[in-house]
Design a protein that fits this description.
alpha/beta; 2 domains; four-stranded mixed β-sheet
Length: about 400
């Protein structure tokens, strides 16, 4: 009775407050999805909010390969990698990732979220300092908080502020963290400047390249290669297998010594069952395909340019960017929700992104592109969006 009073009063109060502030979330349900499209109640809708940038998660060739792999690879690892859950496929995937990112070594985890939380809290601790871009992903923030290190958030991409903080607030060891491509805005971090600051101050630079991997740079190797920066041993590159790679899991690439340290001390790696061998196999096969078939990335680029040009033609100013994430800022969360509903009525799925995912007053529709999008559907989406904005001024 007392539990009911204390806990259920709390649950209901929090749910009511989310509803009152237009921040209530519920799980949208779909029958299934195809590359670039969702099936809802039997109807095919344009999917403008997935991170499956190359359409590999449900593409017929990848699925066929997945079926073959399912016959030879177990679905589960059965134990932590340090016990009996380390199979040859894990090692092969890590070798491929290290080579792709032009680093020495790699380690895979069951998810990208787990990678960030685990790696960051293992790298830094009490007495150390972390300097994190204000727009970094929530999994980075959670890793920083868990670490117990002093935690400073510099204004987005502000290298001068970061340089000042490194001088005045530096700890025993310093860690700089940035997204490579920022997940809610689609802009690319100033990696050359960040790498230089890290090198000069003796810090490590951790780049979360969840949204650059498989998308940017020659053969999709990511944001650093896109900016012509070679990996060096003061850099760690994090990524996920769950976005352009079309599987599931996370990874970290770096020097042999840094990875050896993580294998020995990273609790999120040590105390968790190894990533599914089957998923590791699917990821391996998809990465090999991304590297050998440049038409995937080219189709994504064309889709990206088409949507940006169509939006401009309909009077919505958007910058050019090679990143396949395009925010349409709408301000308050109610307007963003209404816009998402209007798009849905036109057979277009684009989620309203609201606080706390983005700062108060910057609710938006976050559009993300897929190599499999049909170009006329993107033009239609731009027209529907423009119609909403014209008839619903802020
Ligand atoms: C920048 C960034 N880092 C990390 C993650 C977490 O990756 P995963 O979805 O594989 O857990 C995400 C995914 O939303 C992300 O956008």
């Amino acid at each position: 009775m007392r539990t009911k009073k204390i806990w259920y009063t709390y649950f209901r109060k929090r749910i009511r407050s989310a509803k009152n502030e237009n921040l209530y979330r519920s799980l949208p349900l779909f029958d299934t999805f195809q590359p670039g499209y969702l099936i809802r109640n039997g109807k095919r809708c344009l999917n403008l909010c997935a991170n499956d940038y190359l359409g590999l998660a449900a593409d017929s060739a990848s699925q066929e390969e997945g079926r073959i792999l399912a016959e030879i690879l177990p679905a589960g690892s059965g134990a932590s990698r340090l016990v009996t859950g380390n199979l040859v496929i894990h090692q092969e995937l890590e070798k491929l990732l290290a080579e792709w990112k032009r680093s020495e070594s790699a380690l895979v985890f069951p998810s990208g979220y787990q990678t960030n939380v685990g790696v960051i809290s293992c790298l830094a601790g009490r007495g150390d300092a972390i300097f994190s871009d204000k727009w970094n992903h929530a999994s980075i923030v959670d890793g920083c908080l868990l670490s117990g290190a002093a935690f400073y958030r510099y204004h987005h991409a502000d290298l001068d502020e970061l340089a000042g903080l490194l001088k005045s607030k530096g700890g025993r060891k310093n860690l700089i963290i940035t997204d490579g491509v920022f997940s809610m805005d689609g802009d690319i971090a100033p990696l050359e400047g960040l790498s230089q600051l890290a090198r000069e101050s003796g810090a490590l630079l951790l780049v979360d390249d969840a949204h650059g991997t498989g998308v940017l740079g020659p053969d999709g190797s990511g944001s650093l290669a896109h900016q012509g920066i070679d990996w060096q041993d003061h850099i760690l590159i994090m990524g996920t297998l769950s976005k352009a790679i079309g599987a599931q899991g996370g990874f970290i690439c770096g020097s042999k010594t840094a990875i050896e340290y993580l294998v020995n001390y990273c609790r999120a790696f040590i105390y968790s069952t190894g990533i599914s061998p089957w998923l590791a196999g699917v990821a391996h096969s998809n990465i090999s395909r991304i590297r050998s078939d440049s038409s995937l990335i080219e189709r994504l680029r064309t889709a990206n340019q088409t949507l940006r040009e169509a939006l401009r033609d309909y009077g919505i100013p958007v910058p050019d960017s090679p990143a396949p994430i395009l925010p349409i800022l709408l301000g308050d969360s109610r307007r963003a929700l209404r816009c998402s509903k209007a798009l849905m009525a036109g057979g277009i799925v684009a989620a309203a992104i609201r606080p706390p995912t983005v700062p108060e007053g910057s609710s938006r529709i976050r559009l993300s592109l897929c190599a499999a999008h049909a170009l006329p559907d993107l033009v239609k989406a731009a027209r529907t969006l423009a119609k909403f904005i014209q008839s619903n001024p802020d």
